[in-house]
Amino acid sequence: MIMKMRLEKIEEYLKRGIAEGSCVLITGQTSDSFVYNGHLNPLIDGIRQFSAERNMPIIKYSLDRQIEDLSVPTSKAKLKYQPSIDEGTPATIVIDKVFESLKKSGQPTTVIIDFAEAILSDTTTPTLDESRVLQQILNRVLEASFRVQKHLIIMISRVGAVNSAFAQMPGIIACNIALPEQGEREAAVEIMLKSQKSPLYLGDMTPSRLGRISGGLDIDALSRLRRTTSQNNPLTRNTVLNRKKEVIRKQSGGTLTIHDEERDINEDIAGLAQVKLFIKNTQSDKQNIRALLLGPPGTGKTLCATAVAKAMDTIPISLAQVKSMWVGESERQFRQVIEIIERNAPVTLILDECDQLSMGSRSGSNMAQDSSSVDTSLRGMLMEWLGDIGSTNSGISIIAMSNNANGVDPAFRDRLTTIPILEPITAADKARIAMIQLQRMERQGDEAGIKQAFAESPKIFTGRQIVKMLAKATRCADKDSGVVTYEAMRDAIAGMLRSFGSAEELMSLRAIKFTDEREYLPWMAARLLGNGSAEAPEYMKSFLSSDQTEIDHERLDARITDLVNRGY
Asked: Is 493 left (phi over 0), alpha (psi -120 to 50) or beta?
């Protein structure tokens, strides 16, 4: 399928306008630049070229410059009769004179009225003069004798929203210009790279990659980025994504949270082979990822979510405050949030505590809605939206997380790939977690000694518990070098009163229960990635086959029931 640039799509509306004798109302990204015939052009230039190809002279009326003849000099189309307009002439008189000139000339002409939002505002009631301008235009385009003359009347909105009721009136063809799609962004980047006056420098980044990650930015925003580049200072991924973050924050207010701290799945996260395998399996298709991370708290689910977002070259965002105390406001805000997410794709949406999906807290003494009914409504809207984007190449990745696997809606779970996030199994993984944290603390550690200390302890710890015990380990570090040694780590482990217990075991077993694909069992993923000796945790082995590739779900369910009956 051949992708059409936005100006090519606009041309289809202009052709309709001529054929039907209607007024074409153009809204949206009208002030952006557009890829057309290998160049970046403003909208007006595209319309001029369209008119020149049809030998149509072109008149533009704007509030700042009044009447202009914009006919292309090299075109055969010449304006036979240009209305004489004095500066400051009211719009109603100008419109009358323009239509009178069209009648006198008898030649098909393009007329651009370049201030649509001034008379069609969606936030103010039109004045008497503004209403008359609307009536003048509508009367003309609905007049049979005018329609057969094949004039093209175009109204362009530049900055404000246009009254939606006008767009639906007879004789009006509404054309809303969206943000550029990936193909147009890539084409724009190629043009910028060849610019003699102000070239774009990409370094190792390809035009394809820049076109993909820059969703949500218009062509002019991309063009401004090149001003900061040079051969020695090429454009980076972080520069582009930081610009996107600014746009999302401005658009969303407090309804979306951006996760600024990035994690690299290989450098910043120890173990978790199942997540690394999932990224490997899906990274070739950098469009849509759907994953559900299940497991006890403190095992690194949020770290994994942000690492997946980085691997996908996307910004990780979360729903923040969506619910409202006013009737219908929650649903309206949710729809706005979804529009922002879709507009800025590709992005990664992180849904924490997805067993609740409560969309944020509500406050106020006089609640206008019942909270449970609002939650049900929002959950329904979210489920419908997930179903819609799941079957399309939307560029919206979903990473959901929960400690309570049993509480996740089965219909929601079926839309995602379940990945269990458990405690680190091997002493090497535990030592690696400690070393990564020590590096962040700007402290040093003896990795071999730390690994030995964990290997000697029968206790099970989550990643978060390991990070906590480092506070004591650093206090017990070697007095001269400050290095966390075997002895310091051994003493810190011994001093931990609480480790991985029955409550965490229950959460882990439920995460395994709902895992559909064998390769995403942590030990199986490790084997697939080259660690042939990887083993399941000891407390799970009684539910597994001898080679640990199959799960005895009957025994697993019995253990889960036992833990539940005991109050965990």
From this structure: alpha
